[in-house]
Protein 1
Amino acid sequence: MTSYSIILALHSWTRWLVLIFGLIAVFRAFAGRQGRPWTGADNGMGAAFVGSMHLQLLLGLILYFALSKVGVKAFDQAGAAVMKNAGSRFFAVEHLVGMILAVVAAQVGRTLSKKAVDPVVKHKKAFTWFLIALILVLLMIPWGIWNPARPLFRF
């Protein structure tokens, strides 16, 4: 196995952690908007969501800048042709930008929810920003459902 295939497999599997933690964090924040106290579990799930997002970003940046031919190396090889091909453009630009925005949204949600004093405000901030992050993630994952050549689970 090459370092590329190992990092790609880790990146592929870590997305499931991001999705699971994201769904739980969004659900907990949504349920808490009616006045439930902000608990350690709420804080912990937000931290798990943001932490898994940061790990996923790190793995993705390693792929993009060092290992993958569909990352920054795509511009060296094909130049402007990358932007004309929807598949190449997705990985070279759209996936990267969308996922960075998702990480930023998740981090903003975590920061604002930690700084808020009122538990309802904590839940509302977390819900809004975590939901934005989760939607971006869902939109930017190259799902194998629509492209059978892309597996849902890499080994």
Protein 2
Amino acid sequence: MPAMRVFALPYLALPILLALTASAPHAALADEPVPVEKQNPGDSSGTLSPKQQLDNLFTALKRQRDPDQASLIADQINAEFSDSGSATINLLMQWADKAIQDKRNGAAMDYLDQVISLKPDYVEGWNRRATLNFAIGDYRKSMEDINQVLRIEPRHFGALAGMAAILTETGNDAQALRVWERFLDVYPANRSAQQEADKLSEKIAGSRT
């Protein structure tokens, strides 16, 4: 299952999105708490549905105040987003990732277009294409894709970070701050988002004096 990647982005947004949307794998340690139970005693199958699992993860993320533990939960959420449930879609996503690494953005876009056409409710297809459009500087198309991500999953913190970055890049600081506030409502322990929100708050307050 491919991890969410952040590609070559403009200098302002790159460190923000690296901190907020990268999903590096974490080895399971014996003394690490398991944030969310995958078993559902009330379910005859004994397991949670993907939607139930995501809902539980987002609940745990909102409650968690330790940044490191919250990051582990965020990684689990990103893993849930990345797995399409289709071998064909997952393979196309891998090909898109490889094409981007090789700087073949046109080929990557073709693969992502196929992903979206085959599975339009797959949130990570839209998110990955939004990231690629951001990387090549097409903010309008990136924002369109981000809006599709948030239509499917309003709690998608990676897409919210991308939206905030675009709004900041285009000088819409007040709107960007509102998006960071939405982000922090979903993922309150994220230090980078806290810092970005604080900087924008100070900048906006300073411009009013």
Protein 3
Amino acid sequence: MPQIPEKIHELTVGQLAARSGTAVSALHFYEAKGLISSRRTPGNQRRYHRDTLRRVAFVRAAQRVGIPLATIREALAELPEERTPTREDWARLSQAWRAELDERIRQLNRLRDHLTDCIGCGCLSLHTCVLSNPNDAFGERAAGSRLLAEKPGAGGAR
């Protein structure tokens, strides 16, 4: 992995891509979505502050666990500009996501535990299936599979 000398405070998009392991196109996308920012040189080239490396790492880690980009952007907006965020900064942000991640884990465990029954029959409408939707009871509210997102006891499951 290429090292960046301490005296360099700004990175080109190529340096940021190489150091972060992120494609240049992804960095441009992150910038377009307001997740990272750059300044432009007189020659119209992007320059990223060094702390952008941590922001990119944070974005990628959050994406891996399914945090939506809008939520990531809101979190990053709370970080200080022009200073590398501290461990406390990151801890504060990640704490806010704990409940959401716990709920996702619960939903994934539920899916895993009952996946073979539902996918095995293919109909998703058996009375005995905990993920079923008898008589399309949820079809009135929204299109698509809704039961995995429902809270236990929210009606219709079984």
